[in-house]
Design brief:
Length: 105
């Protein structure tokens, strides 16, 4: 083996290790899903019915006086839709991909 092969092998291993470490850290931050108890921290509002809006998860319209859950990024969703989304799939908003941080509420 010449020294260039050894050099590039070492660089490759370091690069692979750093990328794996970065992905592990990101995964641990993103995949912390909400529990049913922590969902109660997110506020619930009644839809005024003044505008026509849809839930971007189920694509159905909101009805007047229907209860919606608000994420810290100011997006609203049907309670059942967003609760299922946050507890099973992702803690980021389906609209803007911002992390639904409980502290930001």
């Amino acid at each position: 083996m010449n020294k260039f092969t050894v050099y590039f092998s070492i660089i490759g291993l370091v690069y692979y290790g750093l990328n794996k470490f970065k992905k592990d850290i990101m995964r641990s931050k993103i995949r912390v899903l909400f529990t049913k108890e922590t969902l109660n921290i997110l506020p619930i509002y009644k839809f005024s019915g003044e505008e026509t809006e849809n839930c971007t998860i189920c694509l159905e319209e909101y009805y007047k006086d229907e209860e919606l859950r608000k994420l810290p990024c100011n997006h609203y969703f049907h309670i059942l839709c967003i609760d299922r989304w946050i507890t099973n799939y992702s803690t980021s908003c389906p609209n803007c991909n911002n992390y639904a941080n409980i502290i930001a509420v």
